[in-house]
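Task card 7
Instruction: Convert sequence to structure tokens.
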Amino acid sequence: MSPPSPLAVAYLEPSRLDLQGARWRAGVLGQVCYGGRSPTLEAADWPAAFIHTPRLDAPEDLCEVWLSADPVSAGTAEGIAYRRTDDLLFGVVTEAEDVDGVGSAAPLQCAAERGYLRLFALIDALGYPNLLRAWNYLAEINREEGGVERYRQFNAGRQDAFLASGRSLTDGVPAACALGAAGQPMSIAFLAARRPGVPIENPRQVSAFHYPAAYGPRSPTFSRATLFRLPGQEVLFLSGTASIGGHETRHSGDVGAQTRETLANLRAVLEAANGAARGPGFRLKSLYLKVYLRDPGDLEAVRAVLTEALGPGLRAAYLQADICRADLLLEIETTAGLRIETP
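Output:
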């Protein structure tokens, strides 16, 4: 029998976390819980984030718990709780938007810079300098402040931190998503590694870090996906993916067409990754999807398109969130190559 894959993820309701045994809990790297606050999350003894994204397809919240078959140790530095193995480190950064003493920069821009500078200081000091995947959540992502959309403010602060830490804005940037969550302090969950991953781009899209100035003075700093190799396992972290062709939004106002365009982009990224993978490759039908919808009323239409395309074995969770562009109606993110646990 082959050894278990080093990295796995479990999707379960918060009420089921307390039912897991000590051995299972010892392998937890961290978790992100989507939906409504739960006492279980507050008591977690590993890095944990609560994200205000109501679940649309079930009455209970959804916890995404990252697990390792390798020995796990814990610590805190730079105000960040983390857990790590020899290969990977998981942590959660929360940063308030301080309205005092920020000079001419917007509070969110400053918060993003501070949060990423803390993140980089942590992973550099501990020897995990390669940021593989970041999940970014912030309030009112599409609202304008001082004539600048908040997502663009976030992009500026994130880029400032990359530059200040001596990191490239184009080479080896992580897979990422950025979603709007109501009443949400800026939160960043992340995975970093000792070794670099392989960045993957989508041939159907302009790389986000090369977007034209029409999308803001600073381009988003992320790759479309990151391929990472662990002993006996290849993992593909896919960024939040939406209905964008080239650099333009496609099918404005048509949620069904946007869903199909998003699927086409996911397939293109998987195909590009399969060209670099050493193993048998990744298939969309085998993945667990997190589907973010701007309008909860679009749930059944989106689910119908996904089921038609991927079949009755579709595994997905549907969450309400604002998307990084006001004319995008949904975004899908996923990770390929993982062992999916259902404790």
